[in-house]
């Protein structure tokens, strides 16, 4: 027997001691578990958590220390943000609310899960605090109309809009060098834009416009990069239970008749025309053919690498900063220009709801909602705001004029949109192109827009949850290929109609109209 | 020769077997058989299919972003660029996170192998009123999981393991799949050796430690390897339970880096990072160390693999 | 030499045997009589305890949360406070017109993946076993294990480069087809080939992983087993297929049963990374997990998600019970449950 055991090599290092080391580790784990501090050592004073999306910014420890030093001196507490990467932010924040975790504020919005949170009573209404007059810095930097536009149907305000412009307009970012070459007269209308695309495809062999699939590219709200009508009359905002589901078009005279009469998007002639146009662009090579499966990073890289004439942009001041450096590196001498080919130019007055894409909400389960409001007020002071968003002046950035900054250090990418964005306080990137600066300034002013008749209409999905989920699935399967131009319009539309009918379109449409009519009559 | 019930093993007394296979092998070396040739070709082809994309990952991670975004791949790093690595290694985060990952991998694998081997042996013992119930008990978690919310509440509130690496380790230390892989190997343990030991008065523990474990090195190496890979790649539990950036494991740091860079495209925040190359560089960075560790596990199950070769 | 036949005589046969009288045969531990445990020591309890404790805490504990499958889940009320909803959460999936197709896809793809990866694992292990030379062997083993580390995102990037090219036009495969004057294919809008493309990806990713398991099994085969074959002058192919392969059956059977239990769980990681929201491919690639993920991502509803998960588990459970019964009937010796 000894021979057998020996043949197997008893002398090799898997021994009882090794095994015990393993089980010993288990015991150690249990012990450690028992003594592990709840959430990191807090040596002195109170420290409040908050949820922020994205990655930890470079140099964060240093900047956080500076912010905390000042916070402590001013308010007597510190803050301790927790960063959750974007892909998981929605589910993780929901989980933390569900687990009744102790954090003060979080980012939420309709495209995240604010409806669910409000319905569950997980968010603190802010009306009393805002009316108390204690938080003057906050109320001075966030327009009252912004609060009003984001009022929930129950009449309360549940979040501070963290936006840096009054309205975000979908538009295009074009290669300035290519525009100069192929459209020397400038691109001011959609026709000129289309001609530019065809020229670039024919003469440069580059796709005209790259973006991943998005219904709003094709069915503008009120503008969309590929939606010609939107640049003529930017006055239509579709209604929807959620933006990845079916879009409905309300009657043009809804505000006067009091009857929304919303119909599925395909019954709206300009939208239908836009579907045909996109199909044509797909076949002519104007748009990228992988809209359905390419991820945004890939397409951004394609544009930044000089592989396309235009890409998608939105008026939040990021057109230049997100593309220029990389583009210049890949294509020496390249430039950027922000294109908003409104027929009426700066006086277009597009419709807007002013609903914020980002709302900073206060956790109702948090230990101290007052402190949360104090923090939101504190970051509304220019000095504090600058420190948080741009870092330490002189080390991380230097001022250029009154309202621009030039980054000189590594600190960047603080998610201000989840805490501190305030229209009057935002500094712009010092290299921002002239065209972007013009349009960004324009988009900061509420008077440049028309308030949509359905501005603060937020439909409640409770009655049709199952149907809605199934319609969403049908839109992903049959709608997206249409929006990408990947299938013939008639054929694709037939499939979509059949699928959503089966999923309960009639019921959902009826529910939407019922709620929309109620909204109109309440105004 | 009598066959056995589970059939994996049949032996003649070892002494008799020792010599001839050696001769046989030596003889065969001179005339390779068709199957051997086919094997070389097959493994070679599959190896190539595995190697080419891997090479493309390495080459791509060192290629300038502009070329990558135009073509989507690169066979040769031209123009050469280390931007992706520079972005990833900016600051000390990635280096720090190696520490966390190594801790999680080493401690996790040790606990996992120890506890998995223990239960696997008890299941493999075939005691009717102990082993079967345990097998079912172990199998059920493979089918039913409680989901995210209860797990989260358990770890953060009941066990108070927030920001502890054990929050990442403990939920993963018993993989039913690997328990059963090990059970199937333990069942092949030669019975007469066990019986001999018992006659000598060895208890269950001694039998396990002095006979079963030493005889099971190949499978333990495999199990350890698989657990190590699981722990090395783990980021989701870290995302859930580790909120202090200084304690992030490597995969979470990289995961965050990627999604933030990727989402920068959507959000218009300032970034000048090469997104394409970063994803490839991240693959290289994460594969590197575990690939270096691989040969250590390998020596246990590559040893004496040749047909008819003697282990002697 | 023939493959060893199975001996189905009483497992108690060896009870009184003891080591000395029985050295010529080896019997697996499974057949060991219970005698040795009772009244002797609690060693086995000690051995099983760590795993049992861990499973109770980290697997069985959270299972209490399965109740949310029957609740109208509410964030503020949490897992145990939410109101009951009966089977309402199950409606969503089953009332969708797609349930049949999606379940079929899940089943079909999983069967494909399981068969292909197991097959590839066995074949690779057999072939690796033929490779001589320590360095060569280690090199190849390492190489075929590498794809396991490549994340689905990177796989998806390369697939797009191969099949679609930048901007979705061209791509390596189409360039290749073009060289032979074959028409280009718009891969990402053609659902037909995708089950096979995904299977190739799975084999590429898991072939090496599976081969490691089988290689370890081959390692545990004592060389004496081959002796008769060597004497008879059997070819290496004969030895591999007549001796080695039958001895790998128990391992393969266990992997198979384990796979059956999860057959209703779609391979979300791979499929979603590659197909994503590309609706044109759903006809053949949409599985339960991707469907649920998409339909519920905007309004993450823990209740519905839990309900679908429970359904998948219960079906898996039923299938495993069936598989185990079949196994007990026809191949008792490989049964694990």
From TrEMBL, chain A:
Cited InterPro entries: DUF3502 (IPR022627), SBP (IPR006059), TAT_signal (IPR006311)
Coiled-coil region: none
Record-annotated DUF3502 domain positions: 453-520
Protein's recorded name: ABC transporter substrate-binding protein
Lineage per the UniProt record: Bacteria, Bacillati, Actinomycetota, Actinomycetes, Micrococcales
UniProtKB/TrEMBL annotation, chain B:
Subcellular location: Cell membrane
Domain of life: Bacteria
Disordered: annotated segments: 1-29
A GO CC term attached to the entry: plasma membrane
Membrane topology: Multi-pass membrane protein
Alphabetical list of SUPFAM superfamilies matching this protein: MetI-like
Chain intervals with Low complexity compositional bias: 1-19
Keywords: Cell membrane, Membrane, Transmembrane, Transmembrane helix, Transport
Alphabetical list of Pfam families matching this protein: BPD_transp_1 (PF00528)
Domain ABC transmembrane type-1 per the UniProt entry, residue ranges: 98-288
GO biological process terms, semicolon-separated: transmembrane transport
Transmembrane feature ranges: 35-58, 102-124, 136-159, 165-186, 207-229, 276-297
Chief location: membrane
Family: Belongs to the binding-protein-dependent transport system permease family.
This protein's name: Carbohydrate ABC transporter permease
Organism per entry: Antribacter soli
From TrEMBL, chain C:
Keyword DNA damage: no
Keywords, sorted A to Z: Cell membrane, Membrane, Transmembrane, Transmembrane helix, Transport
Domain (ABC transmembrane type-1): residue spans on this chain: 103-323
Annotated stretches, region: Disordered: 1-32
Entry's localization field: Cell membrane
Main location: membrane
Protein name, entry field: ABC transporter permease subunit
Origin species: Antribacter soli
A GO CC term attached to the entry: plasma membrane
GO biological process annotation, one example: transmembrane transport
Keyword Transport annotated: yes
Stretches that traverse the bilayer: 42-61, 102-127, 139-163, 194-218, 239-265, 306-326
Its membrane topology: Multi-pass membrane protein
Similarity comment text for this entry: Belongs to the binding-protein-dependent transport system permease family.
PROSITE patterns according to UniProt: ABC_TM1 (PS50928)
CDD domains registered for this protein in UniProt: TM_PBP2
Domain of life: Bacteria
């Amino acid at each position: 027997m000894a021979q057998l055991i020996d043949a197997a090599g008893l002398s090799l290092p898997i021994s009882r001691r090794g095994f015990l080391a393993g089980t010993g580790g288990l015991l150690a784990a249990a012990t450690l578990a028992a003594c592990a501090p709840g959430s990191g050592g807090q040596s002195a004073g109170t420290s409040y958590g908050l949820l922020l999306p994205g990655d930890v910014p470079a140099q964060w420890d240093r900047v956080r220390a500076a912010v905390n030093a000042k916070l402590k001196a001013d308010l007597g507490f510190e803050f301790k943000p927790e960063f959750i990467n974007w892909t998981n932010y929605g589910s993780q924040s929901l989980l933390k609310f569900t687990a009744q975790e102790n954090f003060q504020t979080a980012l939420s919005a309709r495209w995240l899960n604010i409806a669910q949170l409000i319905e569950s009573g997980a968010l603190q209404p802010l009306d009393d605090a805002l009316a108390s007059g204690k938080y003057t810095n906050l109320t001075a930097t966030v327009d009252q109309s912004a609060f009003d536009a984001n009022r929930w149907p129950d009449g309360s305000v549940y979040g501070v809009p963290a936006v840096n412009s009054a309205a975000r307009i979908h538009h295009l970012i074009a290669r300035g060098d290519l525009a100069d070459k192929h459209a020397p007269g400038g691109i001011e209308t959609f026709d000129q834009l289309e001609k530019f695309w065809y020229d670039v495809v024919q003469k440069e062999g580059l796709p005209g416009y790259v973006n991943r699939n998005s219904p709003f590219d094709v069915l503008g709200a009120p503008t969309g990069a590929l939606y010609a009508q939107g640049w003529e009359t930017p006055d239509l905002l579709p209604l929807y239970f959620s933006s990845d589901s079916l879009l409905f078009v309300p009657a043009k005279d809804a505000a006067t008749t009091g009857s929304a009469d919303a119909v599925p998007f395909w019954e709206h002639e300009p939208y239908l025309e836009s579907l045909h146009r996109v199909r044509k662009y797909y076949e002519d090579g104007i748009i990228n053919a992988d809209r359905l499966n390419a991820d945004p990073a890939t397409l951004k890289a394609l544009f930044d690498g000089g592989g396309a004439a235009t890409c998608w942009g939105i008026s939040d001041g990021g057109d230049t900063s997100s593309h220029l450096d990389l583009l210049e590196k890949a294509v020496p001498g390249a430039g950027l220009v922000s294109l908003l080919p409104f027929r009426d130019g700066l006086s277009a007055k597009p419709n807007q709801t002013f609903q914020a894409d980002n709302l900073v909400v206060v956790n109702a389960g948090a230990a101290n909602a007052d402190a949360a409001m104090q923090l939101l007020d504190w970051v509304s002071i220019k000095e504090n705001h600058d420190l948080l968003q741009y870092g330490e002046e002189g080390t991380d950035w230097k001022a250029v004029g009154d309202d621009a900054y030039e980054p000189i250090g590594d600190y960047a990418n603080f998610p201000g949109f989840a805490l501190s964005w305030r229209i009057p306080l935002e500094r712009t990137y010092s290299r921002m192109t002239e065209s972007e600066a013009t349009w960004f300034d324009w988009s900061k002013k509420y008077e440049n827009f028309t308030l949509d008749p359905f501005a603060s209409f937020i439909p409640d999905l409770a009655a049709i949850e199952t149907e809605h989920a199934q319609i969403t699935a049908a839109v992903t399967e049959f709608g997206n290929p249409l929006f990408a131009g990947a299938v013939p319009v008639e054929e694709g539309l037939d499939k979509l109609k059949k699928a959503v009918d089966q999923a309960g379109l009639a019921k959902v449409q009826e529910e939407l109209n019922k709620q929309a009519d109620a909204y109109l009559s309440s105004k | 020769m009598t066959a056995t019930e589970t059939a994996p093993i049949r032996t003649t007394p070892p002494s008799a077997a020792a010599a001839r296979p050696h001769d046989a092998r030596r003889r065969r070396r001179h005339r390779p058989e068709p199957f051997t040739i086919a094997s070389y070709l097959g493994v070679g082809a599959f190896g190539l299919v595995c190697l080419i994309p891997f090479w493309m990952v390495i080459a791509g991670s060192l290629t300038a972003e502009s070329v990558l975004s135009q073509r989507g791949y690169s066979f040769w790093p031209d123009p050469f660029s280390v931007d992706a690595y520079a972005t990833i290694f900016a600051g000390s985060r990635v280096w720090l996170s190696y520490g966390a990952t190594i801790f999680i991998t080493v401690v996790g694998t040790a606990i996992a192998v120890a506890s998995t081997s223990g239960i696997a042996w008890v299941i493999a013992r075939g005691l009717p009123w102990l082993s079967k119930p345990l097998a079912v008990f172990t199998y059920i978690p493979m089918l039913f999981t409680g989901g995210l919310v209860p797990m989260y509440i358990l770890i953060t509130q009941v066990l108070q393991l927030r920001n502890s690496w054990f929050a990442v380790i403990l939920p993963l230390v018993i993989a039913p799949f690997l328990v059963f892989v090990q059970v199937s190997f333990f069942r092949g343990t030669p019975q007469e050796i066990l019986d001999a030991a018992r006659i000598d008065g060895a208890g269950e523990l001694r039998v396990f430690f002095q006979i079963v474990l030493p005889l099971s090195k190949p499978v333990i190496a495999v199990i350890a390897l698989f657990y190590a890979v699981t722990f090395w790649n783990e980021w989701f539990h870290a995302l859930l339970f580790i909120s202090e950036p200084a304690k992030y494991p490597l995969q979470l740091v990289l995961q965050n880096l990627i999604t933030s860079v990727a989402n920068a495209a959507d959000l218009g925040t300032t970034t000048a990072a090469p997104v394409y190359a970063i994803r490839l560089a991240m693959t290289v960075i994460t594969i590197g160390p575990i690939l270096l560790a691989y040969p250590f596990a390998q020596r246990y199950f590559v040893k004496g693999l040749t047909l008819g070769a003697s282990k002697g | 030499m023939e493959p060893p036949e199975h001996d189905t005589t009483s497992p108690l046969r060896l009870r009184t045997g003891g080591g000395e009288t029985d050295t010529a045969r080896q019997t697996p531990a499974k057949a060991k009589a219970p005698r040795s445990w009772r009244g002797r020591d609690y060693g086995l309890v000690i051995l099983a305890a760590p795993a049992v404790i861990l499973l109770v805490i980290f697997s069985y504990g959270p299972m209490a949360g399965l109740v949310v499958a029957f609740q109208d889940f509410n964030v503020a009320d949490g897992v145990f406070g939410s109101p009951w909803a009966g089977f309402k959460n199950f409606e969503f999936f089953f009332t969708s017109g797609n349930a049949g197709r999606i379940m079929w896809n899940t089943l079909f793809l999983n069967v494909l993946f399981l068969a292909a990866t197991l097959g590839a694992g066995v074949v690779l292990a057999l072939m690796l076993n033929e490779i001589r030379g320590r360095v060569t062997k280690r090199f190849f083993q390492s190489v075929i294990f590498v794809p396991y580390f490549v994340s689905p995102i990177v796989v998806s990037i390369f697939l797009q480069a191969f099949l679609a090219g930048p901007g979705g036009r061209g791509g390596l495969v189409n360039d290749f087809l073009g060289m032979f004057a074959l028409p280009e294919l718009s891969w990402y809008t053609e659902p037909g080939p995708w089950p096979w493309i995904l299977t190739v990806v799975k084999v590429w990713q898991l072939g090496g992983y599976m081969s490691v398991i089988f290689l370890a099994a081959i390692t545990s085969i004592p060389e004496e087993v081959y002796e008769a074959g060597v004497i008879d002058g059997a070819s290496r192919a004969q030895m591999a297929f007549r001796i080695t392969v039958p001895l790998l059956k128990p391992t393969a059977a266990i992997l198979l049963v384990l796979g059956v239990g999860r057959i209703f769980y779609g391979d979300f990681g791979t499929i979603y990374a590659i197909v994503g929201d590309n609706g044109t491919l759903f006809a053949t690639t949409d599985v339960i997990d991707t469907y649920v993920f998409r339909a519920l991502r905007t309004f993450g509803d823990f209740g519905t998600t839990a309900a679908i998960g429970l359904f998948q588990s219960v079906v898996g459970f039923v299938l495993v019970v069936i598989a185990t019964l079949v196994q007990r009937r026809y191949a008792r010796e490989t049964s694990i449950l």
